[in-house]
């Protein structure tokens, strides 16, 4: 006879109709010791994520060097100074050697990953939990990379999307929160994951295209070549500026993210006072490129010229966001995609108002997408279910 699984284990999800879960194994899975163990594992993985968050956007290898080091004094940390949460608290957020402050992000990521693993354990039975662990791990990593560097590593989302699709193919009922206990074939799982990915990718891609149409890349064309030059900051604003036809544009207004570039077409480009043959010049936040030549901005003495056209890129959203939402959809299905879009915009608006950020500067959107997806995983799907069933549209759930 089958026991009522939710009663013995306290999982939020009723998997009792699912032939896949063995009651005895579930009882073991739900022992508090398992929870403690998974919390500790989550914190350790969080500690590794801190390394990945620091190294990946800087183009450093995650494996080499193997041991963690202090970003300030570069001293390698012995194992006892590398205990998740404990080390940060004992050393009061300072490096043991050089006393340089260690960002509170290290503590937050370790604790957050541990707590999310704990929540996944409470929420999902064992095999589903494996996929849930993978998803929360990637959500945390990408959120913090995006928050700090305004970039989403697309190779991460691609690899994780493939894993999600393979997971759905082999265990079609995993993470299908809206149809728990239903019968699923491998083909159902595959369809669901691929449709989820496509919905996620296509919807944000469309938003970006619409955004480009209205906000656009700002392009200025001039009948007569106009004078432009780089200029040090003046007055209260100490940033570097570019003066184009007497209009000053500051560096922070030009370069939101590492990939942004300013393209100048024209003639008579002078670098450090010397004329060059260049007609096209690309300026990025830290360097200038024409043809094969590349110069660090910090090393330049002067840069000026005449231009007939200037293209200033303006994107409302990073190009990695559709990939990120696609990945979320591959795990959680197309319904979760719409839920995540709706909720993440709400979160972003609230954050913009509370933090007074985002006005004039685009907010990194990745963390809000992650927050939306987590809301879905840990209860949002119930709201969706209740809402559409109340409307009599149970086919949408
Ligand atoms: Zn140090």
Please describe the topology of this protein.
Elements: H1 5-9, H2 23-29, H3 32-55, H4 86-90, H5 105-123, H6 126-149, H7 154-170, H8 186-214, E1 218-231, E2 241-244, E3 247-250, H9 251-254, E4 262-271, E5 274-275, E6 280-283, E7 287-290, E8 293-296, E9 303-312, H10 321-332, H11 334-355, H12 366-390
Antiparallel strand pairs: 1-2, 1-9, 2-3, 4-5, 4-6, 4-9, 6-7, 7-8
Bound molecules: zinc ion.
Describe this structure in words.
- With 397 residues, the chain is of the alpha+beta class.
- Among the domains are: 152-215 and 317-397, no CATH class; 218-312, no CATH class.
- 49% of the residues lie in helices and 14% in strands.
- It contains 12 helices and 9 strands.
- Strands 1, 2, 3, 4, 5, 6, 7, 8 and 9 form a 9-stranded antiparallel sheet that branches.
- It is globular.
- The model is unreliable at 1-11 (pLDDT under 50).
How would you classify the helix and strand content by structural class?
alpha+beta
The count of β-strands is 9
Helix content: 40-55%
Order of helices and strands: HHHHHHHHEEEHEEEEEEHHH
Q: Which ligands, by name, code or SMILES, are bound?
A: zinc ion
**Spans of at least 5 consecutive residues with low confidence:** 1-11
Mean pLDDT: 82
Largest sheet: 9 strands, antiparallel
Shape: globular
Task: Work out the helix count.
Answer: 12
> What gyration radius follows from the Cα positions, in whole Å?
25 Å
| Cα separation of the termini | 30 Å
Percentage beta strand? 5-15%
């Amino acid at each position: 006879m089958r026991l009522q699984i939710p009663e013995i284990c306290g999982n939020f999800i009723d998997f009792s109709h699912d032939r896949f879960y063995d009651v005895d194994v579930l009882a073991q899975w739900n022992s508090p010791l398992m929870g403690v163990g998974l919390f500790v594992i989550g914190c350790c993985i969080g500690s590794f994520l801190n390394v990945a968050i620091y190294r990946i956007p800087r183009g450093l290898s995650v494996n080499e060097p193997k041991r963690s080091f202090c970003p300030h004094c570069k001293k390698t940390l012995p194992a006892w100074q590398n205990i998740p949460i404990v080390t940060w608290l004992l050393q009061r957020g300072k490096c043991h050697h050089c006393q340089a402050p260690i960002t509170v992000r290290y503590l937050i990521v370790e604790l957050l990953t541990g707590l999310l693993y704990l929540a996944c354990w409470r929420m999902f039975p064992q095999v589903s939990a494996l996929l849930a662990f993978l998803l929360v791990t990637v959500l945390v990593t990408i959120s913090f990379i995006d928050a700090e560097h305004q970039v989403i590593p697309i190779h991460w989302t691609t690899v994780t999307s493939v894993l999600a699709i393979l997971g759905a193919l082999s265990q079609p009922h995993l993470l299908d929160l809206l149809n728990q206990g239903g019968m699923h074939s491998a083909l159902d799982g595959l369809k669901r994951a691929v449709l989820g990915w496509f919905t996620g990718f296509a919807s944000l891609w469309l938003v970006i295209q619409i955004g480009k149409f209205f906000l656009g890349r700002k392009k200025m064309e001039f009948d007569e070549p106009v004078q432009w030059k780089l200029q040090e900051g003046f007055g209260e604003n100490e940033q570097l500026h570019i003066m184009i036809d007497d209009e000053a544009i500051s560096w922070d207004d030009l370069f939101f993210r590492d990939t942004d570039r300013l393209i100048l077409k024209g003639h008579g480009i002078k670098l450090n006072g010397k004329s060059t043959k260049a007609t096209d010049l690309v300026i990025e936040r830290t360097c200038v490129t024409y043809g094969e030549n590349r110069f660090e901005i910090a090393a330049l003495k002067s840069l000026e010229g005449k231009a007939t056209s200037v293209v200033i890129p303006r994107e409302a959203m990073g190009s990695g966001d559709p990939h990120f939402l696609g990945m979320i959809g591959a795990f959680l299905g197309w319904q979760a995609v719409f839920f995540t879009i709706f909720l993440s915009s709400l979160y972003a608006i609230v954050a913009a108002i509370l933090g007074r950020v985002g006005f004039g500067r685009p907010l990194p959107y990745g963390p809000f997408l992650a927050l939306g997806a987590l809301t879905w995983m840990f209860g949002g799907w119930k709201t969706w279910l209740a809402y559409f069933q109340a409307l009599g549209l149970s086919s949408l759930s």
